[in-house]
Design brief:
alpha+beta; 3 domains; five-stranded antiparallel sheet; 6 helices; globular
Length: 296
């Protein structure tokens, strides 16, 4: 495949609406336009890249600048991954347009405050926006169709995670991308419900919450870091505060340890102290709250 030059754009003419346009800007970064949305593959830490977005950049791609992009929408392994993300977004936009959702004014009271506007997905399926949050409201008839394991009393489903319950119940009202995100969200947040509904046992790596529970059970008696700071007193080490099982709250025992800086990686659910290698530390502390205190 020939790589476009910095001033060249390549349009995917088979994509339909919205068209997908790829190109490179003056700095050499790979970018794309899908309707009003712009994407860029920008360098991150450790020689990795991430997906950044822009909105309504009303200039030719060759005139785009890095400052036109903002946010961090996830890491990218390579240019193939970038192009896949862009085409996925184009598919999502086309499918959403075909679904015919409509915006409507609303003065409804929601659990998150007064509605400032709503999107009607179908009769009895309405998504409200508020000043600080938002989510779906299902009519009583629609809400009865939600599996009882996941059904919310009153038919309100917040936008961070519970929206996925609506998508799982009414998949024909959502795009393929949204359905895939909903499946991931249900597995991550309500693994027991997913297993009960579909009769499938989720394996390690398939559910964040199930993996978290397994981690907490396995390390219930281990010291898990709850706070960490680069040590001013011990160069090359991270001073950490750890508690049994990572528990917090009044009366919870705390200890300090020293961990070599090149070993300290938080991990998915926390850093587990290896007492055979990471010594209890009772010296001067870099934590303001520990200054003047000593470890047991």
């Amino acid at each position: 495949m020939t790589t476009p030059s910095p001033l060249t754009t390549v349009t995917d003419s088979n994509s339909g609406f919205p068209e997908v346009e790829f190109g490179r800007i003056g700095d050499g970064y790979l970018v794309a336009r899908v309707g009003d949305t712009a994407f860029a593959m920008l360098p991150g830490r450790n020689a990795r890249h991430y997906l950044a977005t822009g909105w309504r950049i009303n200039r030719p791609i060759a005139e785009w600048k890095r400052s036109d992009f903002y946010g961090h929408s996830g890491g990218l392994a390579d240019e193939v991954a970038f192009r896949t993300k862009v085409l996925e977004n184009a598919e999502h936009q086309r499918e959403k347009r075909a679904l015919g959702r409509r915006d409507a004014g609303s003065n409804a009271n929601t659990p998150w405050g007064p509605s400032q506007g709503a999107t009607v997905y179908a009769e009895g399926v309405v998504c409200h926006s508020t000043a600080g949050h938002g989510g779906f409201h299902l009519s009583a008839e629609r809400n009865r169709k939600v599996n009882p394991i996941l059904r919310a009393r009153g038919g309100w489903y917040e936008e961070d995670e519970a929206w996925a319950i609506v998508a799982l119940t009414f998949p024909h009202l959502f795009t393929g991308y949204e359905q895939r995100c909903a499946e991931r969200t249900i597995k991550d947040s309500w693994p027991d419900a997913w297993e009960a509904i579909f009769g499938i046992v989720l394996q390690p790596g398939e559910s964040r919450e199930k993996d978290r529970s397994a981690f907490e059970k396995e390390h219930a008696d281990n010291w898990i870091v709850v706070s960490a700071i680069t040590s001013d007193q011990q160069p090359g080490f991270v001073e950490v505060v750890a508690t049994p099982g990572g528990r917090r709250g009044a009366g919870t025992e705390e200890r300090r340890f020293l961990v070599p800086s090149d070993e300290y990686r938080i991990g998915r659910f926390g850093f587990v102290v290896d007492e055979t290698r990471h010594p209890v530390y009772s010296g001067p502390s870099s934590f303001i709250g520990w200054q003047g205190r000593t470890s047991p």
